[in-house]
Amino acid sequence: MPTNEPLTPPSSGRPSGRPSGQSSGQPSGRPSGRPGRRPASSRAAIEDAAGELFLEQSYARTTIEHITTRAGVSRASFFNYFDAKSDLLWGDVDALVDSVEQQLRAQPSNIPPMDAVRGALVSAAEHVGSDRIPLAVTQWELMGARDELLTSGLSRFSRLGSLVRVYLDSRAKSGEQLAVTAASFALVGAVAAAAGVWAAQGTARDPLAPLIDRAIAPVCDGFAPRFS
Amino acid sequence: MPTNEPLTPPSSGRPSGRPSGQSSGQPSGRPSGRPGRRPASSRAAIEDAAGELFLEQSYARTTIEHITTRAGVSRASFFNYFDAKSDLLWGDVDALVDSVEQQLRAQPSNIPPMDAVRGALVSAAEHVGSDRIPLAVTQWELMGARDELLTSGLSRFSRLGSLVRVYLDSRAKSGEQLAVTAASFALVGAVAAAAGVWAAQGTARDPLAPLIDRAIAPVCDGFAPRFS
DNA sequence: CGATAAAACTAGACCGAGTACAACAATAGG
DNA sequence: CCTATTGTTGTACTCGGTCTAGTTTTATCG
């Protein structure tokens, strides 16, 4: 007996090909230049289904099978679009970290390093509109057990830490490894704290950027003397 | 067909009861007061086997089955002693966090809050002798992909953050929620950074406590003005 | 001593996330 | 039509973790 597929026994098999459910209009838009089958609207369908289910029954109690079933997609398809279940929650945060990376590169090199980092973080935060909020934030209020959320999210923030560390390292004199690393991860801690407070404010929250700024300012002040 | 048990088909079954292998002497020491079967040396056997296997083939490639097989213990027994595989790596860190909690309670209440936290963290770090080093640290050098390690460890540090936050919260005037949270998690970031640098030093590393102190000092300096 | 209760341990089924791979379907271009 | 390419699916598998029922060892009480 196969291991998975607790639901949807072989009978009543879904018609292969794209299902008739949901909001997927005929995906045959433009020839798109390159060969191969064109993607159905699977990605959006998955995201929508996940958003609904997370609100209905929380992240922890929603399985990937639930999501794909509601989206009218195969379980295998899920992993074509996402590497892990937690990507549904934190994918937006990943994108935000990417934007921090860009902002860091865009910083002028004649200002003190900590000011540059501060500017980059705040700039990135300014692009977080209240329109597109990471799913993780909406879950924050809902979840009784935040540990799973927290754990799945921390690794994303650690990427931010590595990013900042590389930047600071490039602008510090050697022999400052400890200070560079400490500053980077202290900043990330402060950012995460601000994000947590922001998420906890529920709907109609304040803009994120000033919060971030207030949270990281003391860290910047503390470490600034350690850098040129 | 059963799902698991890829190895050890029903043939060649290990003799039930305590195996003759390893270092487990007859555990019948003292009557120990209370009823019930006395524990075999399973816990130590598991830890030893895990330590060996992690060094031989890394954490990621070692399954719980491997560990329990070498330890001569059933898989079920593993979960009698540990909640998760990652506890083998981070259990010592958990204990360390506990000791921070104690140190926080032992701090005099007439010194500034940030000084108290700093003292507690450094005191706890002083008890980390080079004798008993968390397995995670020894793995740090070995692992090609540190992400799994990192992820499994971050949640432990987040507990430290919550601890500090509660303490700071009890000593701050209300309305300082953001500052309290930011300070807590910035501290944790700095501590984690110091621990990482320490771990990366390989064998014969410097004492941890001064490293921690140097890492968190700027954070304390930065946030100190925000608290009474 | 025997009965009982508690504790350590085991066996085995089960679940869900994640991986791997071989198909199959749709589409562009020759 | 043929072929290469890309999206999608079915299916088997691994592993961490949970759960439950049952077995063995032990101390205590009658």
Brief sketch in words of this structure:
With 228 residues, chain A is mostly helical. Chain A is built from nine helices and no strands. The first copy, chain A, is globular and about 55 Å long.
Percent of sequence in beta strands of chain A = under 5%
The CATH architecture of the domain at 89-227 in chain A can be named as Orthogonal Bundle
Q: Give the N-to-C terminal Cα separation of chain A.
A: 66 Å
Major β-sheet annotation of chain A: none
Q: With helices defined by DSSP (H or I, 4 residues minimum), what is the helix count of chain A? A: 9
The CATH fourth-level homologous superfamily of the domain at 89-227 in chain A: Tetracycline Repressor, domain 2
CATH class of the domain at 89-227 in chain A: Mainly Alpha
Shape of chain A: globular
Radius of gyration of chain A: 21 Å
Q: How many beta strands in the DSSP annotation of chain A?
A: 0
**CATH fold call of the domain at 89-227 in chain A:** Tetracycline Repressor, domain 2
Question: What is the average per-residue confidence, as pLDDT of chain A, rounded to a whole number?
Answer: 82
Oligomer kind: homodimer
Question: Could you list the spans of chain A in which at least 5 consecutive residues all have pLDDT below 50?
Answer: 1-26
- Tell me the structural class of chain A: mainly alpha
* Share of residues in helices of chain A: 55-70%
Largest interface: A-B, 40 and 40 residues
Helix/strand order of chain A: HHHHHHHHH
Pfam families (chains A, B): TetR_C_14, TetR_N
Region (Disordered) (chains A, B): 1-43
GO molecular function (chains A, B): DNA-binding transcription factor activity; transcription cis-regulatory region binding
Biased composition (Low complexity) (chains A, B): 10-43
